[in-house]
Amino acid sequence: VQLVESGGHSLQAGGSLRLSCVVSGNSDSAACMAWFHQAPGSEREGVAFRTKGDYSSLADSVKGRFTVSKDNAKNTLYLQMNSLKPEDTAMYYCAARWRGGVCSPGAKPSSFDYWGQGTQVTVS
User: Under DSSP, is residue 12 helix (H, G, I), strand (E, B) or coil?
Assistant: First the structure.
């Protein structure tokens, strides 16, 4: 399984971006897919989660601004980011697993088996 993110960019505060994560395997059967972010000197933390049953959950810091969606036909997970703030600046990683576990904010990065290479988002 390979995950490839794209869509990161540098932009001004208040702008919007859509990140994409293409999964080489069958994303429809993944138990949980998620977006994490990691700023320099900080721990990797979960931002948005999508279960196999299409239930979504978001970290409090992004609620009302970000949405997570999945296109099973394209094996792609999306993160729509609106009203971006400088504190959103980070490397954004896509993650997936095919086994059970917590699929919501607070899920540990170590609980995910597959990761993308990351895409940088810089908000000034």
Answer: coil
